[in-house]
Amino acid sequence: MMNGMWRETHRRRRLAGRRVGAGRDFVIPAVLALLAGQGTAGADPGLERELRAALRPLPHPQTVLGVSIVDATSGAAVLLTDADKPLVPASNMKVFVMAAALSELGPDFAFETVLATDNTDLYLIGDGDPGLGDEKIHRARGESTTAPFERWAEALRARGVSQISGDLIVDATIFDDQELHPDWEKGDLGTWYAAPVSGLSINDNCLDITLTPAGKRNGAPVVSVEPPNSLTRFVNLAQSGGKGQPTLNRGRNPHEFRVEGRCPRPWTFGPVACNDPSLLAGDALRTVLSRHGIRITGNIRKQRIRRADGSLPPTLSVVGTNRTTLPEILRRVGKDSQNLFAECLLKRTGYAWARRNGMNDPRGSWELGRRAVLSHLQQAGIATEGLVVADGSGLSRSDRCTARQLTDVLRWMGQHRGGEMFFESLAASGVDGSLRKRLKDLPASAPAKTGTMPGIRTLSGYVTSEAGRRYAFAVLFNGYKGPSAPYKQIQDRICRILAGGGNAKADRS
Fold this sequence. Notes:
Number of strands: 23
Radius of gyration: 25 Å
Largest sheet: 6 strands, antiparallel
Strand content: 15-25%
């Protein structure tokens, strides 16, 4: 853990004191020192020279960069180059969301999806959890993606329930109705990385569609879908055998797909975003219950059940609760850069922040999430001028942050009571997540957050030198043309210099 005094990085920053709240106890140092402009007072001249040399010349003259490298304990600047220039962070926006979520929700927080009944209807009530049915989370637990539904089926059977005479009612109203961000590019919509953001999610709000060739040539291949449901429909025009590959396109209605082409071998299409996550979750639950001999005679419908204060009506009897812990969510956000998880985390943080601040009947939204992030940063003494939190994943090109803001957050988390959880949620270089193939030669892994979009390459995190000195760094590149590989190599070179690797080893990943 990183300890010691922070250094103030902006004239407008105010002294901050101790703030205590339910599950949000952290300490801000009482005195903040000033770092003037772009100065690097106290830095090792040789180290600074080597770092500057790594940035010259840049591969493309139109590239805009922002760099902040500081001692993670003292805050002393090592290198600041356009550190206060607002740039598009791509997935480095997730750093702000993770920090604000830890501060607002607290390390012990867990999302809780509830199944309840009133002996007539069945109620599936969302808590904004993106982890329900997530393959990585359930695999780490040693269970199937439908395990929560299986447990609920067993609980209903233990109550002697074999039929629900009423409806299955799904409630996703902990979040607002805006499931797609208005800034997201049209070409991204429908992809797994721009899946709709719902208060009730399942399988990353995506469909995994597989074709299995029939026993005879030209026969229609068998189509299967995960999660299992009866909502998704297929127009299957594909043929087994032959040469080529099948294609998948959306059909005329929101839940229809057309499958065409040749299918010579088993084929799995990449995940495609579903159009109605809460309805899909309900239908998937109904399918699993049916397998366990529990029939729902009514319909699946949407209705608000959760009351304005967040509680459930006393007339409901809880059948079971599926909990997804904050560490499970943070690992998917930080290590795997999973966009849906970041968006749900931002909205859920906004919901909790609004409730704590006395807002009547809030619903998690991008706007409330934005306000929550800015509020927590300001209370931590971090300047927010130029910071634009449009979404949580960084998919929006309206997002902006500075390199200095990133290293300020990294230092804040080093002193936060949830700092270890934050640190362990970042990708470890050469080990896992989005950095598993990078920087394998460092003497100690560098926990960091990557970010990549066309024309944008960002990286921020921590590097520990061979002498045991820990640095917080952020290296942001915007506006270049062509491949991003040269900028990844520059970022990796900077990490090697900080680690003490200096000049020698080229990027082998």
